[in-house]
Amino acid sequence: MLGLKLATDPRWVNIVESNIEEILTDHAWCEQKAASNAISIVTYNSELEELVTEMLVIAREELEHLQMVHDVIKKRGLTLGRERKDHYVNELFKFMKKDGSRRDALCDRLLFSAMIEARSCERFKVLSENIKDEELAKFYRDLMISEAGHYTTFLGFARKYQDNIDIDKRWKEWIEYEGSIITNYGKNETVHG
């Protein structure tokens, strides 16, 4: 369904299991950034009522996920560490088109967001199927479903609001680009790392 070029090697979970506190901290900050991204889309596109309504739903869900991750961290007697840089997301950000109309910029921002959600969904699936910790397996299976919903929402809005862009063609470009950079990741105990 996601169409990603490269699947995450299940052995990545072995790295994750070596430092659960790190993956949970990184995951918490990913949720915070996802909520901020949805709010940014609202800020720059406040005239698009349907988009604003759905982005507010996503922002709220992402904050709920942040709360859920924080609850897991506290329950396990761990500490939410400082915010981490997400080099994967930063590389994706560079691929976003900076020229064109406001509508073009919105569509590329939505595709950027869909790509992050697609990879997060895929990583959560790998975690849910391979992590030995049953509580975390269920936790990530449930979040995987939510991420898939966000992915389809972002992609659907990109299709709805496109003017002069062939969204399917541009999405394929995003898939190709992500496939070229993801080979550098999957070596750290972070959601995208």
UniProtKB/TrEMBL annotation:
<dbReference type="InterPro" id="IPR009078">
    <property type="entry name" value="Ferritin-like_SF"/>
</dbReference>
<dbReference type="GO" id="GO:0045301">
    <property type="term" value="F:tRNA 2-(methylsulfanyl)-N(6)-isopentenyladenosine(37) hydroxylase activity"/>
</dbReference>
<dbReference type="InterPro" id="IPR012347">
    <property type="entry name" value="Ferritin-like"/>
</dbReference>
<dbReference type="Pfam" id="PF06175">
    <property type="entry name" value="MiaE"/>
</dbReference>
<dbReference type="InterPro" id="IPR010386">
    <property type="entry name" value="tRNA-Hydrxlase_MiaE"/>
</dbReference>
<dbReference type="GO" id="GO:0006400">
    <property type="term" value="P:tRNA modification"/>
</dbReference>
<protein>
    <submittedName>
        <fullName>tRNA 2-methylthio-N6-isopentenyl adenosine(37) hydroxylase MiaE</fullName>
    </submittedName>
</protein>
